[in-house]
Amino acid sequence: MTATDTPMGTAIRAAAADIKLSAVTKAYDARNVVIPPLDVELRAGEFTVVLGPSGCGKSTLLQMIAGLERVSEGKILIGGREVQELEPKHRGCAMVFQNYALYPHMTVAENMAYSLKVAGVSKAQRTERVAKVAKMLGLSDLVARKPGQLSGGQRQRVAIGRAIIREPGVLLFDEPLSNLDAQLRHDMRVELADLHRRIGATSVFVTHDQVEAMTLADRILILNKGRIEQFDTPKAIYYQPASVFVAKFIGAPAMNILRVTGDGDTLRLSDGQVVANYAGQGNFQLGIRPEDIVIGAGGRLKAAIRYREDLGSHEIIEADLAGQPLRIATPFGDEMDKTSSFSFAFPQTRLHLFDAETGRAIPNSFRQAEAVRRSAKEYQ
Amino acid sequence: MVENARSINIVASILLLIGVVYIVGPLYLTLSTASQSYEFMLRNGVAWYPGNQLFANMGKVITETRIPIQMLNSLLVAFFNALATCALSFLSAYAIVYFRVRWAGLVFALILVTIMLPLDIRVITTYQVASNIFSPLNAVLDVTGLNDVIASVFGTPAHLELSVLNTHFGLIAPLVAHGTGTFLFRQFFLTLPKDLLKAARMDGAGPIRFLFDILLPLSRTSVASLFVLTFLSGWTQYLWPLVGASTPDMQTAVVGLARLVPDADGQVPDFPMIMAGAVLVSLVPLTMIALLQRYLVQGLVLSEK
Lengths: 380, 305
Prior knowledge:
Largest sheet of chain A: 6 strands, mixed
Number of helices of chain B: 16
Distance between the termini of chain B: 22 Å
Radius of gyration of chain A: 24 Å
Structural class of chain A: alpha+beta
Number of strands of chain A: 20
Oligomer: heterodimer
Largest interface: A-B, 24 and 16 residues
Shape of chain B: globular
Distance between the termini of chain A: 28 Å
Strand content of chain A: 25-35%
C-alpha cells in the first residue's frame, strides 16, 4: 500500500524546494562563533544528512533553516525565496524533533491537525487529511489516543505525520531516531527512506549516527566545528574521504591512520617497514580501513596482536604496528590462528593519503578512481 | 527508618491521639457551643455537650448580623484574588521561562524576594498607597523636580489623589502579586519538554496561541491548585481586610466574626451565635477543601519542590 494508489488519488506529495545557504553565520558573540560563514546548496527533493559530532553546529544549522534560530549574517533561500527574516510558518518547512515534542494533552489526530487548525483549514478538510496521513503511517487505529498511551516508535510516527500533513516543501529532522532502540531505529530508517521516496520533499536530517547517514542520505554533509569537511554521496565519502576527520568519522571500526614518512620512493613506518610505494617526500598520514587489510597471503608487514574481539561473523584484531595502534577486521567467516604476531598487506588501491599537518586528503595519491566512478554513476 | 516494634507503635499512637485532641477539641467546643442557646451558656458556662439550637443560632446570624453580606464580600475577595493571582503568576512565569528576557534571573530573584515580604510586614505602606494610589507617582514628580516645572507652567503642582480604601478592588489588589505562584508555574514549565514551543512555532502558532492552546491546557492542574490555595488564603485573610475596609458592609466575614463580640464592657458576648457564625463562615472553605483536596495536595507538593 502506498499513498499514490489511494482511491482519492490525492496523495500526500510535496512540491520540493531547493535550499541555498550563502555565507550563513551564527555567532553568539565575537568569541563564540558556532558556524563560520557557510555556503551550501541542497537540491530540491534531495535527502541530505548533516552528520557531525555533538557540538559541531549541526542542530543550530537546522534550526536556522527552520527559523527557530536567528541567522547572524548571510542569506537562506528556500525555493529561491529569501527567508532568513521570516517566521517559521512562512518558510514552508516542517520539523521532526528528537524527543517528538508532541502536545501531551491532544490526541494523535489533534496533534497532527494542529498546524492546519492554526492555518484556518476547515474541520472537514482537517479530518480528511488526518485520515490520509494516519493511513499512510499505519496510525489509523490510534488517532483517538493521547501521546502518553503510545510507544516510542508510534510517537515518532505521529511526529512525522504532524510534519508531513501540511505537505511542506522542506522536511527537517533533528536526530529523530536517537531515542529509539536499535531494532526500532532500523525499522524507522527503512520507513523514512520509503516515506521520502513517496513524499518527495527536500529533507534535511541531522544525526551523529553514521549508519543513519550512510543508509538514508543522497548526500552527506559532514560538519566539524561549524565547517563543512565534506559534502558528497555516501559512497564517495566512504571511498574517498576528504580529510582525516571524515575518514575517522565514517566506518566502523574507524579507519586506521598511521604516521608515515616518504623518501621519494616508498612510504615507511618509523621502524623502517615499507607500507606503500609513493613518489613523495616528507611526513604523511596514511589511512587504511580495517576491513581492507589483507591478512597472510605473503604480506610483507608484521605486527603484534594486542587484543582480539570475536564478533561471530568476523573478528576485530587490535595490533601494534611500529608503536602505532592498528585495527584489522578479518574477512567474513575467517578463523584467525591464535598466534601472537602475523603478517598482512595493505592493498595499494585501498590506501588513503593525507597531509600530515592539515589532515586534508592528497588527491589521486593512489588509484581509487574505480570506486569513485562507481558511486558517481549511482548518484546520477 | 520505620521500625515495626510494638512499643514504638503505642507511643506513636499516643502522640497522634494528643495531636487529634489538640486540633479537634476546639472544633468540638465550637460546634457544641454553637448548638446551645445563649441562656444555656449564661447558666452553665462552657458548653461541654451539644444542644439543639444550631439552626436557630445560624438563623440569628443570618437575620441579625451583617455576616451574609460579609460572606459575599469574602467570596468576591477570595475568588478574584485567586483568579488574578493565577493570571498574573502564570503570565510572569511564561515570560521568564519562554522568552529571552534580559536580567531574567534577577527579575525572578526579585519576585522570590516578595515571598519574604508578606503583607503583614508592609501593611502600613500598603495602607498609605491604598489611601492614594497615585502617591508613588506624586513622590516621583516631587523628587525629580518635574512638579516645579508643572507648577511654573500650570500655576500649581500636580497632586493626584484616588483612594481605593473600603472598595473591593482595594481589598483584592494588594493580595494579588504573589511570588509563590510565579515560582510554582516556573517549576512546572521547566518540567515540560523544551521543544514544545519550537514545535508550536513550526506549526505556525505564535506566542499567544501557544499560551492558550498548549501551555494553559497543560497547566490545568497547576492552575487549579494555585487557585484553591489562594482562594483559601484570601478567604481567611484577616489583617488587610481589617485595615483596608472601614464600613461593616465592606468588611469580610472573618473580620465581621471578630466584630460580633460587643465592645461594651460587662456584657457577656452571645457566644453560641458567634460560634454558629464561625461554623457558617467555615463552610465555604470546608466545601472547597472537600471537593478539591486533590489539587490542594498537588499545589503543596509543587510549591515545596
